[in-house]
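Example record

Each entry pairs one chain with its bound ligand, pyridoxal-5'-phosphate.
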Amino acid sequence: MAFEKLREDFPLYSSEDKDIVYLDNACQTLRPRQVMEAMNEYYNEFPACGGRSVHHLATKVTMKVEEARERVAEFIGCSDPSCIVFTKNCTEALNLVAKGYPFRRGDAVLTTDMEHNSNHVPWLQQRDSIGLEVRTVPTPPSGLFDLERCKEEIQKNVTMVAMVHTNNVTGVSIPAKEIVKEAHDRKALVMLDGAQSAAHRPIDVEDLDVDFFAFSAHKMLGPSGVGVLYGKGALLERLRPLIGGGGSVGLTDYEKVTFLPPPEKFEAGLMNYSGVIGTGAAVKYLSELGMEAVCEHESELNKTATEGLQDLASVSILAPQDARHRDGILSFNIRGMTSHDVAMIADEVAKVEIRSGMHCVHPFFLSRGIDGCARASFYIYNTKEDCRKFVDTIRFIADTFSR
Ligand SMILES: Cc1ncc(COP(=O)(O)O)c(C=O)c1O
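Structure tokens for the complex follow.
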């Protein structure tokens, strides 16, 4: 697969910023023209409301939205598109489960000590409002997932395991299939926060047998403002919608409401049609590339970048050291510098765009007394030349500013 050729599809690479080294993909990726064209097609050709009006423009919207739902379902190995709920982002999808599932006081949820706030805050809110017990699996110094510890925790009675599938700081993925099996053997459900996995590796929710899976479109070539919740049909039936309104209900009277079956029951109000259609175009683009190839490409780049920094005494890479465990994510610090300074200088001197700070995983950093890290994250349009520029820039910063 000639990944370099893909740049022709991404307008930023023919703009005045064409020499940019965009490595903030774990936050948000660039979008190809195919996605923007699909979104503009909605605004230009059928800018109507789906699922309600009966004229031909509205019918086209409904068809396009359902086509996007089918594509997303296929992309994650789901054979029933009605198990795909469109939300506004991954955060909303995770909240939908944390707050919509009929938990009872004293039920326990198991997470890790490295959750993004989006899969941390909702559980603390539930702890405070309904008395949910929240337990975590600690990450050992190797940075790898402690499956044995996780199994021990699951055996201590857990209602739901809700964990980040691929970590946004370390890039480490958890052994989801084993976790799901262990959890199901103990009658616990599993939700995966797939914000960093769906974009980077093949996902098959049915093979994983996972109960809920959440992700965002903007981390995988799609527009911002669209997220996805996959849930097994019977479980979606049991979830309470967090928002009620038009489009999510059958006939209402002054007294009572009957919600439609999923996914409509969770999609109240006029939707982000263009965004949903753009999401369909994004997964089509990725499917054509093949997610195995995407994963290999990123890993190869990460290996090159990691090797380029490994001999620098002033640069510490966040565990694990071996790039093969980190997909396309490389987080690091330079001795004596804040991560924000590293990121600002990299932008200033070489247009190398990386992320800095605590990456919304505050408890992990605070508990270890680290004030954050810089993070480079690779995607399909990044090249070996990007890696070289990134490595040269970080070496220059370390040589010049490290104390
Ligand atoms: C692991 C992880 N989970 C959840 C989120 C939240 O995604 P969103 O902001 O799209 O809701 C992110 C975003 O960076 C993430 O990396």
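Residues 3-24+290-401 form a domain with the Aspartate Aminotransferase, domain 1 fold (CATH 3.90.1150.10).
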